[in-house]
């Protein structure tokens, strides 16, 4: 066959294959089962990358559904918008083909004046996370590629040094790129000349974090030939806006509709629960959950305000439960170190303040977040802090919403911190009467209604009224000692500690990048040491149901290899559903009322057997 015919045939085949994918996209189908057979090899991934993935702590052997679909399209040079649930592996879905493309261009003689690839993320934490992943892959593959990260707190001279060369890949936030352009560290013409791949990760958050102007500045420099990739966990008008601003005729990959109900945005392996309790009763409820071992560790707890997180920390430490707090007020070095320690399993409870939505609402009348981000008053808190979104927490088994998020998107991102990739997880939301409205919004967003067998958020069966009441006296008595002044002092003390830590960390980690044990972030902040008798719960306080429930949670934890001694280990993959107490245990929890309302908690021993069973997925 003549060479021209062969090329024609190849092109026809390719275009047919593309049409097929296009058809699937149009009907919103990413066929997980049918595509199952496609391995990384079959996707055409470079053997060096495959070997690197196999070497990972938790070895990565098979692509996830989004990776199966996105990787070939990215290889073909298409612009792609990929929306897939939290923890579904979107980062590698763009990183692997991006790196492979750069592998083949490193030999090119063309002298570049600016990086070939920009990866833009909404927060400093994510910047660090993606940077580490890229660096690790480059090191493992032993290729001559250079990646740098730029963060907003870097002085211009450091930015200039980082960009000297130039590196091949830049990981940063949009505001930092805009700043680099405005101070001349990055040159517009050079960007326009060199940029080949632009990734907007966590695209649904980029605009809500106030980066619209920065992205507009950048979009003017993005050359037509540049391949643009946009990744997000949730869809929103913001994603559409970004798509129009930056992408050219992209392939849009979304998840299938679940039985015609709703997009599946929450991973199936996350079981969602809620507990009804008055605002003032939240402390005793969380104490019961943690102290009586009714949830699996590690636990990530969300509050909506920094003061609340310190109140909770002080309260819990009176009962011998040590935790660390994470918020936008802390220096970035400390925040990164806290995340690393938590991921490495050095402590089990992390209280994160997710107050971005609250601040956005408060600021709504005072001008855009983009403006406030620039104001000096905001300098005390890092406006690029975003611990909730996109951070890959390792082995978090339970997410607790101590305060409910203000939106369904906030909820999706929070509970997506568990059940990452193929691991299992659970979320427990403490819902006060004032928060019932958002719970109902979440339920209807999830397609959760009385007649729907796919109920996705259910009353938590392991926490009974008796369990809560057994601790009420101690909890209420102890809560009185956690005064506003104590909270204020603890917050100030923690900040002082962390500023000192931050300096030490900076110096220490330049020399010992892998040393995690240097500083502990879960130190006791109470002025008075906790009373020893509160550390133990006497047996007589507990009823048989609660004892049974906590025994089962402990057994399940042991079965999953998910306890403290299993530090730095992931949960065992072959954990059987039958061992999961949430799938076999039946106890009387708060009863689910009619849609739009909620019945009071039943008395112990009442009609739990009649309650509709949640169909666990
Ligand atoms: N093919 C795979 N097999 C097993 N684990 C994987 C695979 N791909 C990625 N992972 C792991 O899954 C975890 C979640 O991946 P990632 O952070 O990319 O999720 P995400 O889709 O970006 O989530 P989010 O929307 O919350 O940011 C990571 O720990 C990653 O190493």
From TrEMBL:
Q: Which CDD domains match?
A: DEADc_DDX56, SF2_C_DEAD
**Annotated Gene3D superfamilies:** P-loop containing nucleotide triphosphate hydrolases
InterPro entries named in the record: DEAD/DEAH_box_helicase_dom, DEAD_box_RNA_helicase, Helicase_ATP-bd, Helicase_C-like, P-loop_NTPase, RNA_helicase_DEAD_Q_motif
Question: EC annotation?
Answer: 3.6.4.13
Q: Please note every region of biased composition (Basic and acidic residues).
A: 1-19, 598-609
Name used for this protein in its record: RNA helicase
Q: Which organism is it from?
A: Salix suchowensis
Q: Which family does it belong to?
A: Belongs to the DEAD box helicase family. DDX56/DBP9 subfamily.
Domain named DEAD-box RNA helicase Q: which ranges? 38-68
Residue ranges the record marks as coiled coil: none
What sections of the protein cross the membrane? none
Q: Which reaction does it catalyse?
A: ATP + H2O = ADP + phosphate + H(+)
Q: Would the keyword Repeat be found if you checked this record's keyword annotation? A: no
Which portions of the sequence form the region Disordered? 1-40, 558-617
| Key words, A-Z | ATP-binding, Helicase, Hydrolase, Nucleotide-binding, RNA-binding
Q: Which SMART domains match?
A: DEXDc, HELICc
Lineage, uppermost ranks: Eukaryota, Viridiplantae, Streptophyta, Embryophyta, Tracheophyta
Q: Where is this motif: Q motif?
A: 38-68
**Which superkingdom heads the taxonomic lineage of this protein's source?**
Eukaryota
List residues of the Helicase ATP-binding domain: 71-253
Domain Helicase C-terminal spans what residues? 282-468
């Amino acid at each position: 066959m003549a060479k021209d015919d062969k090329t024609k045939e190849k092109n026809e085949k390719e275009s047919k294959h593309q049409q097929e994918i296009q058809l699937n996209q149009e009907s919103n189908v990413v066929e997980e089962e049918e595509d199952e057979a496609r391995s990384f090899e079959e996707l055409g991934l470079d053997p060096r990358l495959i070997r690197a993935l196999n070497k990972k702590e938790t070895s990565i052997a098979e692509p996830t559904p989004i990776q199966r679909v996105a990787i070939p399209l990215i290889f073909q040079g298409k612009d792609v918008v990929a929306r897939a649930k939290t923890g579904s592996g979107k980062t590698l879905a763009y990183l692997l083909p991006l790196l492979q493309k750069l592998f083949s261009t490193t030999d090119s003689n063309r002298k570049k004046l600016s990086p070939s690839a920009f990866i833009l993320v909404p927060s400093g934490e994510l910047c660090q996370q993606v940077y580490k992943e890229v660096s690790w892959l480059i090191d493992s593959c032993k290729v001559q590629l250079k990646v740098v990260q730029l963060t907003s707190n870097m002085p211009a001279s450091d930015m200039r040094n980082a960009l000297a060369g130039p590196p091949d890949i830049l990981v940063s936030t949009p505001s930092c790129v805009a700043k680099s352009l405005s101070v001349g560290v990055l040159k517009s013409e050079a960007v326009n000349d060199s940029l080949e791949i632009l990734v907007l990760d966590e695209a649904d958050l980029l605009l809500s974090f106030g980066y619209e102007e920065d992205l507009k500045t950048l979009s003017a420099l993005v050359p037509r030939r540049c391949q643009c990739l946009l990744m997000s966990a949730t869809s929103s008008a913001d994603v559409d806006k970004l798509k129009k601003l930056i992408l050219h005729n992209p392939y849009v990959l979304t998840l299938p509709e679940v039985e015609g109900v709703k997009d599946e945005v929450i991973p199936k392996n996350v079981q969602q629960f809620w507990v009804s309790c008055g605002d003032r009763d939240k402390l005793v409820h969380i104490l019961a959950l943690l102290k009586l071992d009714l949830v699996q560790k590690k636990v990530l707890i969300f509050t909506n305000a920094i003061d609340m997180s310190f109140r909770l920390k002080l309260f819990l430490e009176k009962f011998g439960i040590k935790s660390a707090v994470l918020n936008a007020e802390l220096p970035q070095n400390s925040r990164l170190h806290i995340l690393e320690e938590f991921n490495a399993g050095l402590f089990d409870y992390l209280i994160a303040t997710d107050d971005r939505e609250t601040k956005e609402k408060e600021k709504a009348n005072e001008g855009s977040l983009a403006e406030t981000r620039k104001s000096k008053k905001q300098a005390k808190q890092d406006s690029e802090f975003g611990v909730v979104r996109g951070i890959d927490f390792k082995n978090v088994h339970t997410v607790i919403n101590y305060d409910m998020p203000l939106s369904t998107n906030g909820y999706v991102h929070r509970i997506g911190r568990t059940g990452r990739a193929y691991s299992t997880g659970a979320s427990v939301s403490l819902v006060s009467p004032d928060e019932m409205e958002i719970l109902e919004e979440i339920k209807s967003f999830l397609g959760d209604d009385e007649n729907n067998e796919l109920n996705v958020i259910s009353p938590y069966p392991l926490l009974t009224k008796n369990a809560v009441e057994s601790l009420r006296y101690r909890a209420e008595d102890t809560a009185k000692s956690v005064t506003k002044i104590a909270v204020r002092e603890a917050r100030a003390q923690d900040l002082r500690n962390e500023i000192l830590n931050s300096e030490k960390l900076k110096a220490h980690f330049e020399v010992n990048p892998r040393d995690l044990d240097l500083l502990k972030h879960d130190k006791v902040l109470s002025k008075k040491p906790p009373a020893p008798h509160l550390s133990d719960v006497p047996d007589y306080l507990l009823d048989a149901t609660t004892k049974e429930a906590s025994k089962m949670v402990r057994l399940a934890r042991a079965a999953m290899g998910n306890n403290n001694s299993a530090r730095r280990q992931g949960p065992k993959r072959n954990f059987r559903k039958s061992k999961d107490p949430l799938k076999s245990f039946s106890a009387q929890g708060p009863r689910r009322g009619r849609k739009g309302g909620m019945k009071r908690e039943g008395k112990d021993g009442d009609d739990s057997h009649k309650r509709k069973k949640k169909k666990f997925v």
